[in-house]
Structures are given as C-alpha cells and as structure tokens.
Give the backbone structure.
Amino acid sequence: MLFIYGRNGFEVKVQTTPPSFTTSTDQRMPMTTIEQRIDRAKDFFARYGREFMAEGVSQNLVAAYRTAIENSWRLMREGGVTACCSACAARDPAGCCGNGVEEWYDEWLLIVNLMLGCTIDRSRSIQEGCLFVGPRGCELLARHQFCLNFLCPTIVDSIEPARVRMLQSVSGVELSAGWQLEQQLRRWVRDHDGALAFCRQEGLI
Ligand code: SF4
Ligand code: SF4
C-alpha cells in the first residue's frame, strides 16, 4: 500500500503497489472504467447536487469535512511533509502517485469531490502517474483512505514520531468526516425516488 502527502501546500501525493480495486467504503469490485465512473458522478451531481446541498445537514457535513481536510494539510505543512514532497515532486512530477491508483475511486467518492468544488478531469496529465495528479499535485480534495494513510519511509524518517502519530490522528478525523458525508448522501438517495432510480439504473447501488 502507499500513499500521500501534500505538495506545495495544497496537494497530497501517493505511491502505490498494484491497485487492489477496492472502493471507498463498500469494498465492491468496480466493473467500470474510471472514465465511466467520473461521467456518472458528474451526471449525478448535475441532476441532484443542488438539491442535496440545499439541506442543512448536508452543508454541515461538507463544512466539517472541508475543515478536517484543511487541518490535515496544515499539519503536513507544519511537520515539513509538504516541503519533503515538494522536493520529491521536483525530481519526479508523478511522485508516488502511480498510474492505477485512480481505480480505487468509485462514483460516491467522486461525487463528494464534486460537492467540495473539485473539477475532475478525465485526461491524464502525467502518463506514469495517477489520473488525478496534475502539475501541482493531487487535484482531488476527498481522497481514498489509502491515499491518506500511507507515510513513505522518507517521510517517516524525516519527522518526529510524535508528529507521525499526529498526522495519523488527523487523517483518521478526515476519513471519518468523509465517511459521514458519504453515508448522508447514500441515505439521501434512498429517500428520493428520482435519485434512487438513477443510482439503480447506473449501478451505483
Ligand atoms: S516524499 Fe514520499 S510521500 Fe512525498 S511524494 Fe515523495 S514518495 Fe510520495
Ligand atoms: S488520488 Fe491519485 S493524485 Fe491524489 S493522492 Fe491519491 S494517488 Fe495521488
């Protein structure tokens, strides 16, 4: 496994062994291409995103998730992780974000990224890299658990153990906040016939 860490203060990178093809929370085996999943996520978001985001509970969960993500980035900057990854990225633009990691992302996590304001590109800017890695690092905000949990040996060896534990702790908070938002989205879909029919038709549920 592998994973992350901010570059240039705004992005997070990851390295990888061959992808396991498990998805964000339900561990299904995706049978579709990442391009198809991106298109489905964008279609869902265009149809139902505004309605979902109009609800107070949705807004609160999005805000909490965004705050958790920002806290993770801040700690990585303060801990020197960002500087370390920036130096690494200067040597290799893809860094440890390898081609194939994008396969871990399912429609739900992609929809959450859209809710956070990400514009998800279907084209790969770095051939040897993850579909989501761009010139400034990861272009997603809501990242897969594997993209959050891995600390490469370079990072682990360069920062204090206590700081490593803090990073792991804030990553856990971030994952929890993202999980709560995704669960709220799934509940919302079950309570809305149109969205439910769409998700069944598209194979999201
Ligand atoms: S320093 Fe480690 S985590 Fe950061 S980009 Fe390089 S390999 Fe990835
Ligand atoms: S989604 Fe891709 S670019 Fe983003 S952190 Fe994970 S491996 Fe790196």
Remarks:
- The chain has a mean pLDDT of 86.
